[in-house]
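Entry 14. Structure prediction run on the chain below.
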Amino acid sequence: MFTLTVLLTSTLLALALTPLASAVGHRLGLVDRPGGRRSHRGIIPRTGGLALFGAFALTVLLVLLLPEVLPADLAARWLPPRNDPNEGRRLAALLIGSVFCAVAGLLDDRFHFSALPQYAIQIAAGFIAIAGLIFIKHVNNPFAPGLFFGEDGFPWWIVVPLTIFWFVGMMNTVNFLDGLSGLATGVTAIVCAILAAHMLFWADPPQASVAVLPVALLGTALGFLPANLRGRIFMGSSGSYFLGFALAALGIIGGARLATVLLVIGLPALDVAWLIYSRWRRGVSPGQGGRDHLHFRLLDIGLGERTIVLVYWLFCAVFGALTLFLDDRLYKLIALVGLGIVGLGVLIWAAQTHSKDQL
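Output returned:
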């Protein structure tokens, strides 16, 4: 019941805040006009990230305040217990990092930062997470029980760069994915739904107090999705930075479910890696905008925008569902490899077909 209340609260808040964020975008001139990579019609505000961040942060803050305003016996019965003494510190880091990403993204929307300042923002966000004990310390061994580097996990000289790489990669993936209406928002909702299901029904013991976070972000994405899918508002850098940071953090907070997140977001992440490699070969900056993203290639080939978005969602949902039913770590590794092969095949086919169409 509590989880459903959190979902409903964040959804309604996102629905209410989206028109306000749209009005702010028009008033500040933070809008996208047709042309370049964008093929939309009309002038569209790109301040949706304010609604996304606002709905999520308000929901989480309400959850934090409930124990203070509810009678002790009611709070004990209704609110999920917290078993981790560091949960409060991690939650604070999540909120502080989210504020930082939303504000930095809004400045990016206003001043159009080059690639270097964008990477600096992403790295700084990763360090905020590390300061709040959100870091990758352990990785499950898929070939045998136990963890790499023993019970103590990775040494710090691996933990820090690995965690920073995870945050930079996830923030870039969501940023690059934000090219078609509803695409990044829908994928975010799928990731959150899979993470929440893992924490509530598959974890032993269930992580009900932590599951509140992906549930809150799920509701936020669902509340923002209708307007975003119809092309009435874009999330902008404030939204993509915030969502990328939040997804990266939730993948770690939920018991280092990195394989789960990678399986859901594997195709977009592979597209990022492909873009970086192909642009490097052509002598183009990886951070430069362009229509060489997979979803733009598919659009140029002739597929409809809504069809591409639905296919992406289906692809992410199918591979995400695999994580719920594949208990064996080796099977999950095989699924990741299979995802990589299928995704690489799609990328090669799209690149070759797009090249032929340009001749």
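The chain has one domain: 2-258.
Filed with the rest of this week's runs.
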